[in-house]
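Box 3.1. Reading complex inputs
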Amino acid sequence: QQPVQSPQAVILREGEDAVINCSSSKALYSVHWYRQKHGEAPVFLMILLKGGEQKGHDKISASFNEKKQQSSLYLTASQLSYSGTYFCGERGSTLGRLYFGRGTQLTVWP
Amino acid sequence: DTEVTQTPKHLVMGMTNKKSLKCEQHMGHRAMYWYKQKAKKPPELMFVYSYEKLSINESVPSRFSPECPNSSLLNLHLHALQPEDSALYLCASSQDLSSGSEQYFGPGTRLTVT
């Protein structure tokens, strides 16, 4: 029922780029992206809605292919602060129900 | 202000105890959520409240009892828990239940059941 994220883990040097993918088996109304650092709460990054609308942080970019039910999060010129676990969440037709993927652990080294 | 507060931060309880977790937000949000998160796993939805009414119960055992006294407060009452219920319990809120409504999470209560 939950979306599938890939890769499971990424290790980067500061300044490098990364892409995290999220794929669903059902029709989506929106995709949500969150980052969680160890011992902290998940923090909202971005929402991508059916129809093309997006909202979120200026420094984060993402895409949503409604036909393929896939979303990708693009992290460019990574900084040490980008380290954490990234979760995508899928919103289907049921209001309020957000299912999270298993997460992608991103580590950025200096 | 995008803050959701939760108390307590840590809780240790025995299997026969009764305790409550509290969550508060002052963003005027009308939807509030309880999630359970085990180590290295994603948050799992437990309950959703919309306009102070229970909207979703994800087949959660009755030893967890949610309550929404008003639009700013959300409680989770715990009774006769099992050791496998030990986890991080996260509260979240959003403007409403629409697809474009982002959720803001509190720092969580780390629960240990002994």
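In summary: The longest strand of chain B covers residues 18-25.
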